Amino acid sequence: MDRFLGHARAALAGLLFLLLGGMGAAQTRPSFEASVPAAEPDSAIAAALLGVDGTVTVWPEGPDRPGWRVTGPEGRILGYIGSSWAITHSVGYSGRPIDMLVAIDTKAHITGARLMRHSEPVLTLGLSEADIAGFVAGFSGIDLTRPLETAARVEADQPDIISRATVSTGVIRDSILRVGRTLALAQGLMGGDRIDRLGFAPHGWAELSAMGAIAATRIDRTRAAEALAGAKHPPEPGAGDFIDLHVALLDPPEIGQNILGQQGYTRAVGALPAGKVALFVASRGVQSHRGLNWRRSGVFDRIAVLQGGRRHALRAEGYTRIDRLAAQDAPEFKERSLFQLGGDGFDPAAPFRVEVTASRPAEDGGVVSMMIGVDYRLPEHFLTPPPPEPEPLWREIWQRKWPVVIGVLAMLVVLTTALFAQEALVRRKRAWLRFRLGFLTVTLFWLGWGVGGQLSVVQVVAFLQSLLNGFRWETFLTEPVIFVLWCFVALGLLFWGRGVYCGWLCPFGALQELLNAAARRLGVKQIAVPNALHERLWVIKYTLFITILALSFYSMKDALILAEAEPFKTAISFRMIRAWPFVVFVLALLAAGLFIERFYCRYLCPLGAALAIPAKLKIFDWLHRRPQCGRECRLCEQKCTVGAIDPLGRINPNECVLCLRCQVVLHDPETCPVLKRRARGA
């Protein structure tokens, strides 16, 4: 067992070294992308998320668009659904995927969300499915053009027990908003509103063409004759125009009003249905861009718009013939058309292509065709800035919690100062005792119960898992207090070992020590554990930690269940508001701690074991010993309330909680036998 523990300690020490020094390389490690499939919606889930009755059909989008398109029986688009794992690769605090299906309607509103898969510790135990489902479903109705305003309502309405699970629920909140926004942008649902419909300046046709507001292409008869050479009646070769095609979006007044004039622009744009834009197409030459079949079919078969791999048909009900143009320098066109475009995922702010098909009967009875295309993109000059990207959740939380962060940093500064100045502190026995009890009281009531600053072995496992499966800073930055504490603990391990956290900053450890101090004052007799048994009981916490870590590679859910051996969640995070078995377990540990100080810390704490392993890298040794310790005097061994000093007087850094009690004895002339003997000799 000792050899096994030695190898395990060395391996995990190496992992911690990578954690502290290899963050940059960790970000390039392989992720779950190749091995974890994203959740897919069926018709029942799609209908529920979009809040519609009846039968719906789910269509996967193309490779250049995320998610799925949901249509009704008549083919009308009802909305879009995306997977958070497929779109944002959302990873929770457990280091494993959080996958949700998020649905939006055609007005860029979130209509529903459903948590499909997770391995989060706070969501696995201690919460009902109704709590989780209620929190996720609470995002329904958020307007993605104003996500932060409406998301604030969700935070205000969330169950109290979920509000304490800042990291997990923060990742869920951030992923839902990001997925919704990605879907809306990909489908052009947030682009139409970007058109500047107020700005105006007079321009001629040539100026608009030079600005890119009008795009054009010209095909002469010779080129058309070559392309349609197999037709029965190909165009006659020559220098004239086969087609001279011009395209523009008229919605910005600076384009539409200059082309059509004020009255024509008002009639054209004022009649547009919601979500539609006005596409202007003009041409001259032998080839018509309209043809005649549209009068019978209602759909223009010669002209169409392509964007993002999708073909948008132009219909007769959205067509208007333009008889004259207001621009004085406009060419003399043979045909001038206005088409209504949009409402089916078309984004006027994104590039698109207008294609005209020229077809002729072939000699062999078939059809010979050529495609004439005009690529168009509305210049940024005619667009308003896009809606701002929502601020990263972790940054928003840090801005909101900066007073708490300052308070934690102040605690750490005070503790660091005390430890660096320990020589002066331990020479004043009463000052040391008051400082220690006072600091532990703040740790318990403010750091623990007040702001949730309780570290856990779950965070250690999650950290190691994230290093192996794609490290993401934002996941750990979501909880500022925990992040600051871990940064301090990582540094403190090098200076002082595990005791800097276990002995001073652990709220549950503080609770045990304060209760034991009260029990001593009330005369509760303490139980002295024999040293041989004491050392063998240490094996439990190391075995527990290694088992939790190993199990996490097989099943994170099972590892988290085993991690309930930690009473921190019940006693500190949930403040005893849990099912009775958890509460009874905590009370049993605290009762044992009344007779054996820090009973849980000594023998059962997997977090203490996890911190003790990398503490082997400790650089300094601040705790002093004398040659007489363990040979002529064993008083410190008897005074050490956690049994961290062996019969030879050596301090075991794996078990020491850095309470400084042995240093007080060492410097107390009224207690230390060596100092007493020196005083008598003097």
Describe this structure in words.
The protein folds into 3 domains: 31-190, no CATH class; 196-382, no CATH class; 393-620, no CATH class. Helices cover 45% and strands 15% of the residues. The strands form 3 sheets. A 5-stranded antiparallel beta sheet has the order 1-2-3-4-5, with helices on both faces. The protein has a 5-stranded antiparallel beta sheet with strand order 6-7-8-12-11. Helix 16 runs parallel beside helix 21, helix 18 (429-448) packs across helix 23 (507-521) and helix 25 (539-554) crosses helix 30. The radius of gyration is 36 Å and the shape is elongated. The two termini are 50 Å apart. Residues 1-34 and 157-161 have low confidence and may be disordered.
List key phrases describing it:
single chain, alpha+beta, 3 domains, five-stranded antiparallel β-sheet, 14 strands, 45% helix
